[in-house]
Amino acid sequence: MSGKYVFSTSVCRLYQVEYAMEAIGHAGTCLGILANDGVLLAAERRNIHKLLDEVFFSEKIYKLNESKSRYIIYNIVETYGIPFLPSHRYLLQYQEPIPCEQLVTALCDIKQAYTQFGGKRPFGVSLLYMGWDKHYGFQLYQSDPSGNYGGWKATCIGNNSAAAVSMLKQDFKEGEMSLSSALALAVKVLNKTMDVSKLSAEKGVYRDTCIQSAWSMQHMQQC
Amino acid sequence: MEYLIGIQGQDFVLVAADNIAANSIIQMKQDQDKMFKLSDKILLLCVGEAGDTVQFAEYIQKNIQLYKMRNGYELSPKAAANFTRKNLADYLRSRTPYHVNLLLAGFDETDGPGLYYMDHLSALAKAPFAAHGYGAYLTLSILDRYYRPDLTRDEAVDLLKKCIEELNKRFILNLPSFSVRLIDKEGIHDLEKLMPVGAK
User: Fold this and answer.
1) Cβ <8 Å between A102 and B71
2) Residue A147 belongs to a domain with what CATH number?
3) In this entry, which stretches build a coiled coil (chain A) (predicted)?
4) What percent of chain A shows pLDDT beyond 90?
5) Looking at beta carbons, which residues of chain A come within 8 Å of B71?
6) What DSSP string describes chain A?
7) pLDDT tens for residues B28-59?
8) Residue A7 located in a structural domain
C-alpha cells in the first residue's frame, strides 16, 4: 500500500481512509437517537429487488448479546463477524456482558491498526453501536474507518447524513426524549433524507430499539 | 496446615485467615498476611503451594487494577471471581499449574455481598460460608449448625470465634493468631486479630 502516507509541506493525509469515509456517504442512511428509556436505530433499507427473498430482515443490524447491538453501513461482509470475538471473549472471561465502550474501543483499535500497519486497506465501514450497561446506562456510539469514535445523543451516517444531523440538532430535546418521540423524530428525519415521497414498510425502514434487558426489532409502521 | 474462612451476612462479608508461614516443620513467620486487596471492595484470600500463592494472587491483583485504570470503573466481585477462575483453569492444563486454594470476598453496589469459594482444580462456587484447609473439616459443621443469613456483624464475629476455638481445641497444629477483615458497602475494614487463649 505505497502512497498511503503522503508527505507534503503542510499536511499529512491518509487518502485511503478519506476515500473510505467518502464512499460511506453514498450508502443507505442510518440514524441513532438516545432516549431516556432506551436507544433507537433506524436504517434505510435499499435492497428492494422484487426477486430478493428476504427471510431474515435485518441485513444491517446485528444483535451481539442481550443488551447490545450494532449497525453496519456499506459493505457488510467486511465486518460481519468481527465484533463477536471481543464481545464473547469478554463474556467467557468475566461471565458478564461486555460494557459498551469497551466493545467500541476494541473494534476501533482493530480499525485503526489497519490505517497504520499491515499494508492492507482500511475497513470501509462506519458503525453505530447502541447498548446498555450498568456503568453508563443507555449509550450510542459512532465509529468510522479511521478508528475514531465518539459517544452521541443523536447521530447519522450514510447518505445525506449532514442534513440529518443538522435536523437532529434542531429537534432533539435534551432530557425529554422518550422512545416514542425518538421514533417520531427518526421518521421525520428519514423522510427528509431519503429520496422517496413517503416512508413505508415496503420501502423498508428498520427500527431497532434497545431497552434494558430486552430487545425488540420491528418493521416500521405505515406512517 | 493453613486455614481460611469466610462468612457472608446480609450486607457484609467477614473473612479470616491464619498468620503462619511454615516450611516443613518450622514456623518461619507468625504475622503473614494471606489476604490480597483486589480493589476497594474485593479481597482475595490465598493459600497453597509456597510461591504459587503470592505469584498468582499478585498477578490477579495487578490485572484487576489494570482493568480499573483502563476503563475508569472496577470489576464487580462476580466478574473478578470468574476472571480468577478462568486464569486458574487455563494454567491448570499447562505445564505450570498453580496449586492454590482461594476465597474471594466482595461487595457489589447492585448485588450486595458475595463470597466465592475456589479450589486448585479451578472449581468456583458462590457460598454463604466457606473454609479451606484441614481446619475446614473441623469448622464447617459448626457453620452448618449456627449460620443464619441474617447474622449481624457481631454475631458473625462470634461465630468466627467459635470456629477458631474449635481449631484451638482439636486441631493438631498450633495456630496462634488470625487476621480478620470485614467488607461492606463502605469498603474493607480491618478488625482485631483473633488470638485464641492458650495458644502461644
Assistant:
1) yes
2) 3.60.20.10
3) none
4) 20
5) 99, 101-102
6) -TTSEEE-SS-EEEHHHHHHHHHHTTSPPEEEEEETTEEEEEEE-----TT---SS--SSEEEEETTEEEEEES-GGGTSSTTHHHHHHHHHHHSSPPPHHHHHHHHHHHHHHHHHSTTPPPP--EEEEEEEETTTEEEEEEE-TTS-EEE-SEEEESTTHHHHHHHHHHH--TTT--HHHHHHHHHHHHHHHSSSSS--TTT-EEEEEEETTEEEEEEPPP-
7) 999 999 999 999 999 999 999 999 999 999 99
8) no
How far B65 CA sits from the closest chain A CA (Å)?
Answer: 15
The CA distance from B26 to B115, in Å, is: 32
Q: Is B99 on the interface with A (CB under 8 A)?
A: no
What ipTM was predicted for this assembly?
0.87
For residue B80, give how far its alpha carbon lies from the nearest alpha carbon of chain A (Å).
Answer: 7
Q: Is residue B200 part of a domain?
A: no
Residue of A nearest to B89 (CA): A93
Cβ neighbours of B161 (radius 10 Å): 15
A94 → closest Cβ in B73, B82, B110:
B82
Is residue A173 in some structural domain? no
Q: Which of A93, A100, A101, A109 to mutate to test the interface with B (most CBs of B within 10 A)?
A: A93
**Structural domain of residue B118, as residue ranges?**
4-193
Provide the number of structural domains found in chain B: 1
